[in-house]
Amino acid sequence: MKKLLLLSVLVLGISTTQAQMLQFGVKGGLNFANYTGGDVEGFDFKTITSYHFGAVMEVKIFENFAIQPELLYSTQGSELDGFSQQIKNELGYLSLPVLAKFYLTSNGLSLELGPQASVLVSERNNVDTGDSNTFDFAIAGGLSYKITKGLFVSARYAAGLTEPKKEADVKNSLVQLSVGYLF
């Protein structure tokens, strides 16, 4: 009986400590997406404005360091302009960024950096642009600021490392502006 009581107190203590170090939340915002890198002959790439939304979790490791995994739906792609036609290529991804979060100041300013893996879940084109790869990998980095204990804003850049289109030597390039709330 004493062992059961001791184990219960230990589990309760660990869960209380973990609750203070673990926060869940939601976020959403604007994407400014384009293709970079290679060249599709005769076309110029133009930025598209789209959106992202999803869930965020912050796991505090130390006072000034946390790990922040997110699960987002994010639309990316580009508009191609050339040969007297405009082609809009919008790719919908389920993205999983896992960011190291370094708090730079005590008032909530932080630097975020880490990998982002994405799986293609939808594609919308006004003209057939060829086959898309179903997986995208990127490096993401940016700044975040906690306005209150729960409310935050962030700005991030994600540089694609894989090709979203099979026939084109291009990479995704993404700027995200977000607002979110941690509970």
Automatic annotation (TrEMBL):
Residues 18-162 form the Outer membrane protein beta-barrel domain. Keywords: Signal. The keyword Signal applies. Residues 1-19 form the signal peptide. InterPro entries: Beta-barrel_OMP_2, OMP/PagP_B-barrel. This is PorT family protein. The lineage of its organism: Bacteria, Pseudomonadati, Bacteroidota, Flavobacteriia, Flavobacteriales.
